[in-house]
Write a structure and sequence with these properties.
Layout: H1 12-18, E1 25-27, H2 40-47, E2 54-60, E3 63-68, E4 82-86, H3 94-101, E5 111-119, E6 134-148, E7 171-175, E8 180-183, E9 188-204, H4 209-223, H5 246-256, H6 263-275, H7 292-302, E10 304-306, E11 312-315, E12 318-321, E13 324-327, H8 330-342, E14 344-345, H9 355-367, E15 370-372
Antiparallel strand pairs: 1-8, 2-3, 2-4, 4-5, 5-9, 6-7, 6-8, 6-9, 10-14, 10-15, 11-12, 12-13
Bound molecules: succinic acid and cobalt (II) ion (CO).
């Protein structure tokens, strides 16, 4: 793979080997001449929406305050020390989606979202650490970042946001538009706006094992098969009616031990879990949909592309899209793997797909999961 300016003229493989999860990387001019993709007003508009996750962080007289969106009112733009943070901007703006996809040298299964922050002079969200990797791209104005590799991650008690009790910065940089800072998980950082500024955070998802375990057990509940019912023809008289019989316990243990799963179960679970849209993501079914015939005609001419909101993954013969999974044959797999990887499909490739896949594509089009063009 070739060197990327985005990563400071190293290849993605070098980045993953030397920095990913290991140490920070400051990249001056990662995207030279970068201009914010959304104006302040557009961002504020998103923050007013119910289904967009947003926060307002203010610091007055040394007191931290955090409000969760929808943010119907913001302090005046001229007032210092407040930050508006808008999560998942990639879901609502195609250029933001395209920016997030520049980071696909990390698998989609790990990519989360693009968060945009707007800060007035002096504002920041305080010294803290995040549990996941992050690229902090300066989009507008200047921000002074102080960072440190400290092990002491004790937080101040009783605050509405995570603030490190003993922040010990070791390095300091002022980022200008187009500059970017990569930080591994748990790396302490504090970014203070110097004048009004906007920062774009490219975030990654790292599900906790607890979350995965709970979700996996729900998944297994739908697929286990334990025929039969408890019976005790050998029941003997007990002196203590309230005591659970020992034989009952051992029979149940024996039966529950029959619950087994293999790589295939975990593959299907993981694909469905990771491709499940977040709770606040809604698809808009296409207005006045074409007929299947017209759709196919147009798709053959113009191609197809996945909606910014669609999550599509695959593993082996299993294809996952927005929380649904299905197993496909070789010809369909070739087509769907391209759609998943490129997030678009050349019309010519539709020739190779079976009717099953064409019907699925038509349904996804109707549901707003993909678009023509
Ligand atoms: C911000 O953009 O204000 C905060 C981003 C971060 O520190 O993770
Ligand atoms: Co952070």
């Amino acid at each position: 793979m070739k060197k990327l300016q985005l990563l400071g003229d190293i290849t993605p493989a070098q980045f993953l080997r030397d920095y990913w999860h290991k140490k920070p990387l400051l990249i001056r001019g990662a995207i030279p001449g970068f201009k914010p993709l959304l104006a302040f007003e557009k961002l504020a508009e998103l923050a007013r929406l119910n289904h967009v996750e947003s926060r307002l962080v203010t610091q007055r007289d040394g007191q931290w305050n955090m409000d969760h969106g929808p943010l119907t009112e913001l302090p005046p733009r001229t007032e210092p020390n407040w930050t508006m943070l808008v999560q998942g901007v990639n879901l609502h703006d195609e250029r933001a989606d395209a920016l997030l996809r520049e980071f696909r040298f990390v698998p989609d299964a790990r990519l989360d979202d693009l968060m945009v922050s707007f800060a007035t002079d002096g504002a920041g969200v305080g010294p803290h650490y995040d549990s996941y990797d992050v690229f902090l791209l300066q989009a507008h104005g200047k921000r002074r970042w102080k960072i440190g590799s400290q092990q002491d991650l004790t937080l101040v008690d009783g605050l509405p946001l995570k603030i490190l009790a003993n922040f010990e910065p070791e390095e300091e940089f002022v980022l200008e538009p187009g500059d970017m800072l990569y930080l591994p998980p748990h790396y302490a950082h504090d970014g203070i706006a110097e004048g009004e500024c906007m920062t774009y955070s490219i975030g990654f998802r790292s599900p906790s094992f607890q979350e995965l375990g709970e979700s996996f057990l729900q998944f297994m509940a739908d697929s286990i098969d334990l025929p039969g019912r408890y019976a005790d023809p050998e029941l003997t008289l007990s002196k203590n009616p309230a005591e659970i019989p020992k034989d009952m316990l051992s029979t149940v243990i024996e039966e529950l031990n029959k619950v087994r799963w293999d790589e295939e179960d975990v593959t299907v679970f993981l694909g469905e879990h990771l491709s499940e849209p977040k709770h606040n993501v809604f698809f808009t079914p296409v207005e006045n949909p074409l007929t299947m015939g017209r759709f196919m005609e147009k798709a053959a001419r113009k191609g197809l592309k996945l909606s910014s909101k669609t999550l599509m993954l695959y593993r082996g013969k299993h294809v996952f899209i927005n929380g649904e999974s299905f197993a496909v044959g070789r010809a369909d797999k070739a087509v769907l793997d391209v759609l998943a990887n490129e997030r678009r499909l050349d019309g010519a490739l539709l020739d190779k797909a079976t009717d099953d896949v064409l019907e699925a594509l038509f349904t996804w089009y109707q549901d707003g999961w993909l678009e023509l063009g």
